[in-house]
Amino acid sequence: MRQLTTLSADVLLAALRAAGEETRLRILALLSEGELSVSDLTDILGQSQPRISRHLKLLTEAGLVRRSREGAWAFFRLDETGAGGAFAASLAAWLDRADPVLAADRERLAAVRGARAEVAQTYFASVARDWDRLRRLHVPDEAVEAAIEAAVGKGTPGSVLDLGTGTGRMLERIAPKFGRAVGVDANHAMLAVARANLEKAGLSRVELRQGDIYALPFPRGSFDVVIIHQVLHFLDDPGRAVREAAAMLSPGGRLIVVDFAPHEMEFLRTEHAHRRLGFSRAQIASWFSEAGLSCDLSDEITLAGGGSGQLPVMLWRGCDRRVQSDPMARQNNLEVA
């Protein structure tokens, strides 16, 4: 059970009033299982959208629940940023899971997640052929993901932000290393895929947000690690995205960028919306410097035998200068078995 921070009498009374109603208590129990939309809760609880929205408004105002927008959708989760969320999690943990009403709610929750996974699979199948074609041009995704994990290190009780999270694959691998894991993507359909994949992996508490990589919806200094994986080549202004990502770092935090080295495959620009045909070591290092980061890692990702494919994939790591550790500062290839 999450440790409960001391609450003032006024805050505790407001929390008790908000939670002290059957439907709202059922909502808290469901949100303790992970993030849900108003539509999800309407389907699970069998109540009208206006009524569910009113209950959520009261829970949000009491600081028990946090709301986030994703286009026309609104998603809700227990507010892990404050004491109210810890109180709500404690209430949910005290509930008897064998209670028939709560057990039926969880069954309907499983059905909602199953339907979500089916939609995600259909979408993924529609784009998988193009993705497979691109994958064959560079080292396997497994090698790239392993290199990112190595650059992240053992992880901390702190937080990680994955920008352009796509299907959520990177979060599946690294979220368990951190106390808080958040993924951001501009595409609602991709977030639906990520949400289904993460739930299937038992990571329903990972946060997913629809957002603009140039104007991230978080306070400055919120994350210990930020990852930008195969995103910059789609952007008109990748340097600006690097600066925004760096602003998210806590003192001494690390920004990890993975993207292609310079290449001449013009079909990626015309057929796959790539705005940039790769980035040089000097270009990324320059953007890191402008963002207040020192580049301590700049490597091509290769297989143990030295293969890298037609499209070389690079990994850069920048460290926030406010806390300077001993730099590894190496330029050799990062080998992945």
TrEMBL record:
Residues 4-98 form the HTH arsR-type domain. One of its GO terms (molecular function) is DNA-binding transcription factor activity. It comes from the Bacteria. CDD domains: AdoMet_MTases, HTH_ARSR. It holds the Pfam family HTH_5. This is ArsR family transcriptional regulator. It comes from Bosea vaviloviae.
